[in-house]
Write a structure and sequence with these properties.
With 318 residues, this protein is α+β, with helices and mostly antiparallel strands. It is 33% helix and 25% strand. The protein is globular and about 50 Å long. It binds glycine (GLY).
Amino acid sequence: MEGIIVHGGAWAIPDRMVEAHLEGCRAAAEEGGRILEGGGTAMDAVEAAVRVMEEDSTFDAGRGSFLNREGVIEMDAIIMDGSVLKAGSVAAVRNILHPVTLARKVMEHTDHVMLVGEGANIFAAEVGIEATPEEELLVGRELERWKVLRQDPKFRARVIFEPPRSTHSWDTPGDTVGAAALDMNGDMAAATSTGGTPKKRMGRVGDSPLVGAGAYADNLTGAVSATGWGEPIILSCLSRRVLEFIERGMAPSAAAGAALGEMLDRHEGRGGVILVAPDGTMTADFNTPRMAYAVWRPGGEGVMALIDEPTRPRLATR
Ligand code: GLY
């Protein structure tokens, strides 16, 4: 049975940001669900769901992205089609409201998997994606955060993913968004989009645009999107690792927990994953204080949107 699960980041989401995260996830899952219900593809559904969250300044993706150390927005995104095992991605791209759509164009209109920086922007112009002025991507919240963080030499991105939930002046960053879907034909897709981590170096690329780290989709095993602290997610190939555990015979929820547990043990990494299995089981798991996610499936069940504290199992729904 078709379905879609979306996330709006795994991190120490403060109480006052909970409602906005739930609303944003709910809207994205509904949009993806509308497409699946109409017979649309998993690729169309995940792209549309991620676009909703890139538009929503609640999240660190598209509008609302963090500023890097130099005060510039650089974004990363990926989309992967599990029916053909093809992916497209962009990294360190500027002035693009919907990096996920640009990533899809890379997959569909080039011989490449990934384009970065200026090359990605040149390609965007070639395929008719208009540049968005940085002022339209930048929100006041992030400008204020950048002003605070640039005075704070001790700030490290990892703290925003760790317990206890922060009470510092910079405690309201959003995080990466993503989606994983299964369509009526049994095809699967995953997508992830992010502005990265606050105060990152110019040119820093996180996990999100990397195949197997920020996302992976394979009709045989499942579709995964990851979120959280990018460097450990890269080192543990988190999304692909979840599917490896499934290939070894684990249930999806156990596989997600095992991959996250391994990332914490071996890399001190914190984050979360969402996952759709070929039988339609949808799972979310995380080892951060909170994670925002929502699920849509047909049949009147509607959309569930959740942020829970870490008590396993998070969610395994069919
Ligand atoms: N997970 C987002 C990043 O670290 O870039």
